[in-house]
């Protein structure tokens, strides 16, 4: 498999590389839990139906705002591991332009090796969180 890291944003690439270096699924879980603990708290006002990620077993919310043509996300989940997935994506995508986010393909998710560690519903949820972030990027780019 050929990596597209040359086109991948630097922050996201660094996170993917961290996960690729962890051979043991338990280490990947621990890394996700660490990201989840680092995630900035999200205000309760952001936890609306509109911001809810559909297709996730746990409750997941994502909000976004555009500042100087760059998108900044906030998110939360009621499950620690999923909170780690949210934090992973937020850290990887924050500060990018809507175009950069919209042109990203989700192949980086496979590259992390996380789909081996995650249950199918969590792996699907990870993709749904990413798609929700892309939807919000599209909305912000069309209103700007």
Main attributes of the structure:
single chain; 144 residues; mainly alpha; Sufe protein. Chain: A; 11% strand; disordered N terminus
Would you give an account of this structure?
The chain has 144 residues and is mostly helical. The protein has helices at 10-20, 25-38, 80-93, 98-103, 107-111, 114-117, 120-143; strands at residues 60-67, 70-77. The chain has one domain (10-143): Alpha-Beta Complex (Sufe protein. Chain: A), CATH 3.90.1010. The chain contains 7 helices and 2 strands, in the order ααββααααα. Strands 1-2 form a two-stranded antiparallel sheet. 35% of the residues are buried. Mean pLDDT is 90; it is low at 1-6.
What is the 3D form? globular
For the largest sheet, list the strands in their spatial order: 1-2
Q: How would a textbook summarize the main sheet?
A: 2 strands, antiparallel
How many separate helices?
Answer: 7
Q: Give the N-terminus to C-terminus distance in angstroms.
A: 37 Å
Low-confidence stretches: 1-6
Q: What is the β-strand count?
A: 2
| Helix/strand order | HHEEHHHHH
The share of residues in extended strands comes to: 5-15%
Q: Provide the residue-averaged pLDDT.
A: 90
> Regarding CATH, which class?
Alpha Beta
In total, the number of domains comes to: 1
> How large is the radius of gyration?
14 Å
In CATH, the topology is named: Sufe protein. Chain: A
